Amino acid sequence: MGRLAETEGLTDIQEEILKTVRQFVDEKVIPVAQELEHADEYPTEIVEGLKELGIFGLMIPEEYGGLGESLLTYALCVEEIARGWMSVSGVINTHFIVAYMLMQHGTEEQKQKYLPKMATGEVRGAFSMSEPGLGSDVSAVSTKATKQADGSYEITGQKMWLTNGGSSTLVAVLTKTDEGAESVYKNMTTFLVEKTPGFGEVAQGVTVPGKIDKMGYKGIDTTEMIFEGHKISADQILGGEPGKGFFQMMDGVEVGRVNVAARACGLAIRGFELGIAYSQQRQTFGKKIADHQAILFRLAEMGTKVEVSHNMMVRAARLKDTGKRMDVEAGMAKMVASEYANEVVEDSFRIHGGYGYSKEYEIERLMREVKFMLIGEGTSDIQKMIIGRSLLKDYRS
Ligand SMILES: Cc1cc2nc3c(=O)[nH]c(=O)nc-3n(C[C@H](O)[C@H](O)[C@H](O)COP(=O)(O)OP(=O)(O)OC[C@H]3O[C@@H](n4cnc5c(N)ncnc54)[C@H](O)[C@@H]3O)c2cc1C
């Protein structure tokens, strides 16, 4: 794609992986995305293709059957995939977060049990913090896991907005438990809930009612999940110890922010590609619209936004890969990439004139999809809270 969104200093292996993913996206995703999206149809063949490419195990260490790649490689693959169809990147996003949480916080037994099957895509992950009454304010989680006399737990409550809620078989669920701690954050526990794929009663005391009908992000299933006395062993607590759930989830969401930034970059790249192509086809007042300065300037701004977003996303991923703190950088990358993607796609839509409003043109789909980037893994308001508080600590006078 010309000179934009290039990444310097990649290894030969990273270049090779990206080339393969880009080819897969160009050949297998872009040609079918419109049709599947308009029919709200699950991209089964594409998902099978991703399994073959090893994408489900990209970051899972080799000892557990994965490719052991970095967050940067993962994020660059996500950018490529989202350029083709954002929903497909959603299929692997929650799976990746659950695998990451297992890698960072799981017991050795949990890693052995789940990671090899997650690497092949046999076990598919979803993660669940949100509830009908909360999204940004995670401390308000009310789904309760009550300890029983035999040491097991019973979960009751309602969860909301589970990406891959139907197709997944392993869900990391944040619950409230009574650890007697003063801080609400230390009375939260993440459980690894096993379920069958599909809808209805998917495990004892667990119901997934059906797909939520959304404005975009179609094809992929987003669901509620209702717990009514779901009995679960204490062995299914992530890391084996209760009271750590909030911090584990926040760790997962932090890498998730790089992932959403990468998805936004993919959408912005595609928006730019469509806009610059159309501007050279369409003629008004005797010349190509790209030759009108207003359009030329719009293209310049779009390209600059693509470049800024890509570089911030890459920097955040690289910081994480070197083990450095990156809460601020991940928050900034997520905020900038999602806001810019929204603007770039909107500009491309304007370049398309009336045709942008037609379902025949790809930009119409991007217009609906890009809105989710402003919400997932925390809204821009929430990113500003994280960035601002952290900067205040660093620059305290
Ligand atoms: C398609 C889709 C898929 C999703 N997938 C998942 C998933 O897989 N797992 C999961 O757990 N969740 C998921 N979510 C939920 C998502 O994370 C939340 O929607 C998001 O965090 C926002 O929460 P909310 O919708 O409750 O909005 P609210 O928290 O109610 O916020 C409403 C508005 O108030 C603003 N606001 C809130 N608090 C503050 C504050 N302190 N200061 C300033 N402004 C504030 C927000 O920015 C927003 O503009 C998904 C959501 C959607 C739409």
TrEMBL record:
List UniProt keywords, sorted A-Z. FAD, Flavoprotein, Oxidoreductase
Task: Name the family the entry cites.
Answer: Belongs to the acyl-CoA dehydrogenase family.
Domain called Acyl-CoA dehydrogenase/oxidase N-terminal: residue spans: 11-122
Q: State the protein's name.
A: Acyl-CoA dehydrogenase
Task: Show the InterPro entries listed in the entry.
Answer: Acyl-CoA_Oxase/DH_mid-dom (IPR006091), Acyl-CoA_Oxase/DH_mid-dom_sf (IPR046373), AcylCo_DH-like_C (IPR036250), AcylCo_DH/oxidase_C (IPR009075), AcylCoA_DH/ox_N (IPR013786), AcylCoA_DH/ox_N_sf (IPR037069), AcylCoA_DH/oxidase_NM_dom_sf (IPR009100)
Which top-level group of life is the source organism from? Bacteria
Q: Ranges for the Acyl-CoA oxidase/dehydrogenase middle domain?
A: 126-228
Q: Which organism is it from?
A: Nocardioides luteus
| Co-factor(s) | FAD
Residue ranges occupied by any Acyl-CoA dehydrogenase/oxidase C-terminal domain in the UniProt entry: 243-392
